[in-house]
Amino acid sequence: MEANYKSVNDSRQGLTPNHPYGAGDPYYAESTGYITPQAAKKRGISNWIKIGVPVLILIIVAAVLGGVLGSRASKNDSASSNGASGADSNSPDGSGNSNVDLADSRFATATDSQWLEPLYPSTTNTAVLTTPTFRPTSNDVLSWPQDPFTFSNPSPTSLRTDRPRLIAPAYKWQALPALISNDPYLRGWNDTIFANATRYYNEPPVQYFMDGPSGILDNARDVKRRIKTFGYAYRMTNDTRWVDRTWTELQNAANNGSDPWGSPPDMNDLWNKNHFLDTAELSAAFGIAYDFFYDIWTDEQKSMIRFTLLKYGLQPGLLVYTDPSAATYGWWTNNITGNWNCVSNGGLILGSLAILGDDDTGTAEAILSHAIDNAKQNCAFGVTSDGTWKETPNYWYFGCTGHAEMSSALLTATGSDYGLSDVNPDFGKTGLFHMYSNGPGSLFSWGDHGPNKYSSTANCMFHYANQYQQPSYALFQRDQHDAPEPWSMFWYDAKTGGAFWNGAPLDHFFDDVNDQWASMRTSWTDNDAFLINIKAGRNDDHQTHNDLDCGDFVMDALGTRWFGDLGSADYRSPDYFSSGDQDAVRWQYYRKMTEGQNTILINRKNQLVSASPTVRHDSTNEAQGSSTVYTVPQDSTAFFVADMSSAYDDAQTVMRGIRFLNGRRQALLQDEINASGTVDWRVHTNATVETSGTSATLKLDGQQLKITMLDPPEGATFATGAAERFASDVTPPVPDQPNPGVTVLSVSLPAGQYTLQMLINPSWPGMKDSDFVTPKTVPLAQWDLRSHD
Ligand SMILES: *[C@@H]1O[C@H](CO)[C@@H](O)[C@H](O)[C@H]1NC(C)=O
Ligand SMILES: *[C@@H]1O[C@H](CO)[C@@H](O)[C@H](O)[C@H]1NC(C)=O
Ligand SMILES: *[C@@H]1O[C@H](CO)[C@@H](O)[C@H](O)[C@H]1NC(C)=O
Ligand SMILES: *[C@@H]1O[C@H](CO)[C@@H](O)[C@H](O)[C@H]1NC(C)=O
Ligand SMILES: *[C@@H]1O[C@H](CO)[C@@H](O)[C@H](O)[C@H]1NC(C)=O
Ligand SMILES: *[C@@H]1O[C@H](CO)[C@@H](O)[C@H](O)[C@H]1NC(C)=O
Ligand SMILES: *[C@@H]1O[C@H](CO)[C@@H](O)[C@H](O)[C@H]1NC(C)=O
């Protein structure tokens, strides 16, 4: 099929009211999305083959961007609400005359205001997307040239001879302007990066601020983000004002600026090595500055940058591998399979690679001889056998940024990443973990959320798309709000045409014993989709970033999140991170204790840290097609059942199951409990809740959802309360954070044996009362795909 080269530079501005930064933000101002001649190239295979869904059929789908805008403006008449529309995703629209290969425009041109999730066209109208949508083109206009430098026998100390050597080599800078002019994503990101550079330019240098448990990490990441951005602006323009501004920032973080770099307790430790992430991020920042501006720094400036980088970063850094007395701040080298290891080794590697060859102290070379191996043994195993980041979905951002930066920098500087990408054969699945963690209501954000992200993004997805031949990772990430960033410009392969959702299974089950979680949804592209993400898994071995939360779940529908997580408590709270043992103070804080989760509480006691649940699940295995409008078949379903008995002291049995019913328009949450202590069923919601005996009506964001108890046990009625601890709980060392706007919907019962069945009915537009079903009671042990028909 031949595409028409039609401009789709249309009324997308209609989306700006939803835009968090206001109309005129460059992320929106661009997006001209001209359809380029490359659209004609159509050839490819599904990249979901690894998870078993080849895409072979030709599907034609419609979505005219103009039409989309109208419908998004008014949520209630969105044609995309699950199940409520009769939209036939498989029929050509018939209009014939504006066949737009959506792969060649910047497709999701806005994000929703609340969660910054991309908004995709949601009406069938006149634009057409055809499969195969994975369409690598061989067109040179979108290709990076061949690296002129060949590494015959890679070694960490045998370097490419030109600069920059970190992540963005010179030949890519030379090619970039042409790629930008031919690719709408690169074009938009370039604009946003320049706008950010200008904004940072006009701000004073980053102020040192010691916030306690996170040290000066925000400052360090802010410096790194600025330097990357200034470096980008400089190399794209040769305008020396970016050089001067970078120098000012470096001087400031070296305490040589016109104002002091805060008041560090130890003037010989400006970068706070005792919270080594800070040291590592500043080392990366100085390394990038050294390398990106290498051609323009004077020898004296280079020597000053090296001096500061060595003194406050690399020299204390080397000791963590060589001097046992440095273990107090180098503990993260020892069996820490989490973001600390990735970020810390990563920063030291970037800083070392930058000055290698100019460093006559031997420090950089010595660091490389330790840091790469250390990262391979630890950082690379932050990913479990199913691709899940062990810490939490939010900590994945820090870990993957550190991992991708060091892998990429080693590749560009020396020609190999020495196994960082494949020493853990399951690492490449981590892009799937990130995609399924995301829903229309944002992340399934169990456990701690982490500090501000600043220089940490999900753009490792672009690097992993290349490393693991998973174009869908790049296709997913390119529509995300955090895509515009210098690394994306070099990691993104503009030849990756297509739609990540095309052939994407709706459901995925992550079975590693560490996490055991399920993601089940009705669509990848409908902001109103029905999504259930639920976990069981272990309550330990998450680097003390988890909650005691087997059975916890989130639920999105009708464009909002009905049940969500409370996130981090205050990291400054005493003993927040000291221990994950059963009696740890951490578990006294409401947001970390079982009470603060969407799960079952027995005897008003925390779940056991030693929990080892077992799970069972199944799915009818639908995959979305090329259309952004997708309606599941009526017999489509998926379920997840966890035996969580091992998480409880005072219960013989606690089983939880959740499933879709009625063509995924309803859900059933069922708990089977035999407890010798009291039973509390609890969920946390931002909705206003009205209860009436055994039913509850939730209202949120102009939408409604109803929960009805089926076959309620005697005495079971819904109650509501504040999201705060019971008076009978142990009092933590400092008061909990309030959870304003959050209501706990609960059912409390004495010790005994119960089956609690909660039928969950979102009020889909156009769905009549008679369209809802009431399922029969089926014990969890007998749940299967057809058990509720
Ligand atoms: C990148 O963006 C800047 C600012 O919008 C613009 O001036 C420049 O021309 C863009 N670069 C390319 C290659 O298009
Ligand atoms: C910047 O200078 C370099 C080196 O002289 C040159 O190769 C490059 O084309 C220049 N870039 C711009 C945007 O002027
Ligand atoms: C900061 O000042 C110290 C002391 O004069 C000097 O040794 C160092 O090179 C300077 N570093 C930078 C980045 O200016
Ligand atoms: C490393 O940590 C894991 C738990 O995170 C533990 O099971 C394992 O025994 C530790 N290994 C060593 C060598 O300490
Ligand atoms: C650019 O600015 C936007 C809006 O403030 C921000 O969300 C984004 O993180 C910035 N990106 C970079 C790379 O600094
Ligand atoms: C409440 O809404 C916020 C986002 O606006 C979300 O992060 C949080 O998880 C929600 N809380 C609950 C309990 O649903
Ligand atoms: C419920 O648990 C008690 C022990 O607390 C046990 O005696 C009883 O047999 C259990 N009931 C069932 C049906 O498993």
TrEMBL record:
<dbReference type="InterPro" id="IPR012480">
    <property type="entry name" value="Hepar_II_III_C"/>
</dbReference>
<feature type="transmembrane region" description="Helical">
    <location>
        <begin position="51"/>
        <end position="70"/>
    </location>
</feature>
<feature type="domain" description="Heparinase II/III-like C-terminal">
    <location>
        <begin position="536"/>
        <end position="709"/>
    </location>
</feature>
<feature type="compositionally biased region" description="Low complexity">
    <location>
        <begin position="76"/>
        <end position="99"/>
    </location>
</feature>
<dbReference type="InterPro" id="IPR008929">
    <property type="entry name" value="Chondroitin_lyas"/>
</dbReference>
<keyword id="KW-0472">Membrane</keyword>
<dbReference type="GO" id="GO:0016829">
    <property type="term" value="F:lyase activity"/>
</dbReference>
<keyword id="KW-0812">Transmembrane</keyword>
<feature type="region of interest" description="Disordered">
    <location>
        <begin position="1"/>
        <end position="23"/>
    </location>
</feature>
<protein>
    <recommendedName>
        <fullName>Heparinase II/III-like C-terminal domain-containing protein</fullName>
    </recommendedName>
</protein>
<dbReference type="Pfam" id="PF07940">
    <property type="entry name" value="Hepar_II_III_C"/>
</dbReference>
<keyword id="KW-1133">Transmembrane helix</keyword>
<feature type="region of interest" description="Disordered">
    <location>
        <begin position="73"/>
        <end position="102"/>
    </location>
</feature>
<feature type="compositionally biased region" description="Polar residues">
    <location>
        <begin position="1"/>
        <end position="16"/>
    </location>
</feature>
